[in-house]
């Protein structure tokens, strides 16, 4: 299960907290929590949903700790390719991450869960503990805000 889901969960966490090291720790803690739960109460109904929810909650905790500690961000590794491509990719990624950072916490969470993990409204609602209507309206507001921030042509 770890090999099947860890990479996607780490990427999700990176999008939520923009720190790969902390993202890896959050995911590791989520898998440890799942293991502890299995030992105490058996398998949850959906281990994947349990992990997603644990990662989102772990990211929330990490962001709270970051705000208190006011820690610096770690630069991301550059993908393979030409130097020009690497610079363009880094600039685009920086712009998108900066826009995600300017969304509310819930808006950022629903955008990442919808467009990175490709979850439907029901799965997002279950992960975040909100109604499907809240998910739909939050996605709509988040997309409008991202369009404003990224200079979309309405």
Automatic annotation (TrEMBL):
Q: InterPro entries from the entry?
A: RNA_pol_sigma-70-like, RNA_pol_sigma-70_dom, RNA_pol_sigma-E_actinobac, RNA_pol_sigma70_r2, RNA_pol_sigma70_r4_t2, RNA_pol_sigma_r2, RNA_pol_sigma_r3/r4-like, WH-like_DNA-bd_sf
Molecular function terms, GO-annotated: DNA binding; sigma factor activity
GO terms under biological process: DNA-templated transcription initiation
Domain of life assignment: Bacteria
> Can you give the residue ranges of the RNA polymerase sigma-70 region domain?
1-67
Q: Which residues form the RNA polymerase sigma factor 70 region 4 type domain?
A: 95-146
Write out the entry's keywords from A to Z.
DNA-binding, Sigma factor, Transcription, Transcription regulation
Q: List the PANTHER family.
A: ECF RNA POLYMERASE SIGMA FACTOR SIGM, RNA POLYMERASE ECF-TYPE SIGMA FACTO
What family is this protein classified in?
Belongs to the sigma-70 factor family. ECF subfamily.
This chain belongs to the protein called ECF subfamily RNA polymerase sigma-24 subunit
Q: Supply the source organism for this entry.
A: Actinomadura verrucosospora
